Amino acid sequence: MTLLGWLQILLFFALVLAVTKPLGLYLFHVFEGPTQPLPKVLGPVERVLLKLCGVDPKREQTWVQYTLSLLAFSLFSVLLVYLLQRLQHVLPLNPQGFAAVGPELAFNTAVSFTTNTNWQAYGGESSLSYLTQMAGLAWQNFVSAAAGVCVAVALARGFTRRPGPEGQKTLGNFWVDLVRGTLYVLLPICTVYALFLVSQGVLQNLAPYRELTTLEGVKQTLAMGPVASQEAIKMLGTNGGGFFNANSAHPFENPTPLTNLVQLFSIFAIPAALTYTYGKMARDTKQGWALFAAMSVLFFAGVAAAYAAESQANPAVAAAQVAQAGNMEGKEARFGISASALFATVTTDASCGAVNSMHDSFTALGGLVPLVNIQLGEVIFGGVGAGLYGMLVMVVLAVFIAGLMVGRTPEYLGKKIEAKEMKLSMLYVLIFPLVILGLGAVAAVIPQGVSSLNNAGPHGLSEILYAYSSGTGNNGSAFAGLNANTPFWNISLGLAMLAGRFLMIIPVLAIAGSMVGKKTVAPGPGTFPTNGALFTGLLVSVVVIVGALTFFPALSLGPLVEHFLGQAGKVF
């Protein structure tokens, strides 16, 4: 590790910290303000969109109505993206003449982008038309991110709204929140963001691919396309679906160290800002800063571990008696070890599947960090919206534990946490490992699962664990040593993505519906404060303990065994 490497990490975090309050305040005005920003410019557009959809912005929904609206919209999205892929060979904007995508792969990709996972079992530049990339994938990058923010805002309303004759049992309107999140937040930022990327050398055109001849006389096809517009929302919306198969390691997606820093910053910007938005909604900004602090502690622990691990020599290369200055296998020379370790940590803290290096080539402990980040529930700032509502579920668990310590009914923001909320929280917590470990166990013993592995032994198990963790956690990154484009993997990962998104969102919205109608009680001498350092420490402990108790046995058989075998000179 070097001083320059740490300065890069600290600069990144300073930028995130600087934007948290102003962007969080802007988000508060978008979703909770009496009037939204730029009312004369964007207000008429919002009203037209809502009128075309037949939505009354003043009519709020119960948690059941909010959930059904989200599920209906998501089902429509899956069908649309599926049909675009299956029919792309007869649709326009297909200059390369790509054939229709197969049914299993089309299902996997449609589910992937609808759930904000953006797992890619395909090579974008070699299989998808411009229309599919823009009208299908890029469009889903916007609305799936906005849908995640909708759920987070709905849960925040459940905790923070006070009882009253109006809105006592409602959480807002999904359609209004979806439009506002897209129109007032994602679209304006991405417009400026995409122009910046173009200025740095990221492609943005609809030109046919170019056939070139290198100086050595070898013919090469240079892919073109509308890259910058998809790259911007890919990062800002914590999606991760790259236009090119190499993702953010590709020089046409991420050409310079400056674009690398800006892309990293944009991943954390909205998730961090939402913590301040939550504090404003709770009428106590310290509540939001406590969540921010817990996320920050976990972030620095992860990035320090990843950076330290990747600064060590690769055991396989060391066995060949080659001098090393850290593990550079699978990394771009223009980014180096520190920026690669930071990128891997940030994208797996958030539900962003973007990569600028190959996680499969990390050391055993270096690869352990992104895997653990996902398995903790991606609550370390997390996906857009998903990080906040995931952390708030952990808050419910932490408050319950604190209530047991002082011997009274647990309370949060003046509302009692009762048996119903605890059951829903535990359902949320248990769904995640059940899907990952259940499907992972099946894949590890049947031929359709293990036949796709490029590695045997503990590293092969890590590839399986990572794939299902990434799919269920709606992350989308991969160890890259797994051939996931088979019927078994396309279907099983598609099901994992659906479960990880919607079977976990439903309990979250049910908690919101249960909490929104509760009366608030004044804090008493036994009330555990939830806006200080003590609660932050308890919250961090709950997140780590839940993840450790659930996944430690599986991790012990994968990356941890691989590490000790590597130290003994046995490399897989």
UniProtKB/TrEMBL annotation:
<feature type="transmembrane region" description="Helical">
    <location>
        <begin position="142"/>
        <end position="160"/>
    </location>
</feature>
<dbReference type="GO" id="GO:0005886">
    <property type="term" value="C:plasma membrane"/>
</dbReference>
<feature type="transmembrane region" description="Helical">
    <location>
        <begin position="290"/>
        <end position="309"/>
    </location>
</feature>
<feature type="transmembrane region" description="Helical">
    <location>
        <begin position="533"/>
        <end position="555"/>
    </location>
</feature>
<keyword id="KW-0630">Potassium</keyword>
<feature type="transmembrane region" description="Helical">
    <location>
        <begin position="63"/>
        <end position="84"/>
    </location>
</feature>
<keyword id="KW-0472">Membrane</keyword>
<protein>
    <recommendedName>
        <fullName>Potassium-transporting ATPase potassium-binding subunit</fullName>
    </recommendedName>
</protein>
<dbReference type="GO" id="GO:0030955">
    <property type="term" value="F:potassium ion binding"/>
</dbReference>
<comment type="function">
    <text>Part of the high-affinity ATP-driven potassium transport (or Kdp) system, which catalyzes the hydrolysis of ATP coupled with the electrogenic transport of potassium into the cytoplasm. This subunit binds the extracellular potassium ions and delivers the ions to the membrane domain of KdpB through an intramembrane tunnel.</text>
</comment>
<keyword id="KW-0812">Transmembrane</keyword>
<keyword id="KW-0633">Potassium transport</keyword>
<dbReference type="Pfam" id="PF03814">
    <property type="entry name" value="KdpA"/>
</dbReference>
<feature type="transmembrane region" description="Helical">
    <location>
        <begin position="181"/>
        <end position="203"/>
    </location>
</feature>
<feature type="transmembrane region" description="Helical">
    <location>
        <begin position="427"/>
        <end position="446"/>
    </location>
</feature>
<keyword id="KW-1133">Transmembrane helix</keyword>
<comment type="similarity">
    <text>Belongs to the KdpA family.</text>
</comment>
<feature type="transmembrane region" description="Helical">
    <location>
        <begin position="488"/>
        <end position="512"/>
    </location>
</feature>
<comment type="subunit">
    <text>The system is composed of three essential subunits: KdpA, KdpB and KdpC.</text>
</comment>
<keyword id="KW-1003">Cell membrane</keyword>
<keyword id="KW-0813">Transport</keyword>
<dbReference type="GO" id="GO:0016787">
    <property type="term" value="F:hydrolase activity"/>
</dbReference>
<feature type="transmembrane region" description="Helical">
    <location>
        <begin position="379"/>
        <end position="406"/>
    </location>
</feature>
<dbReference type="InterPro" id="IPR004623">
    <property type="entry name" value="KdpA"/>
</dbReference>
<dbReference type="GO" id="GO:0008556">
    <property type="term" value="F:P-type potassium transmembrane transporter activity"/>
</dbReference>
<keyword id="KW-0406">Ion transport</keyword>
<keyword id="KW-0378">Hydrolase</keyword>
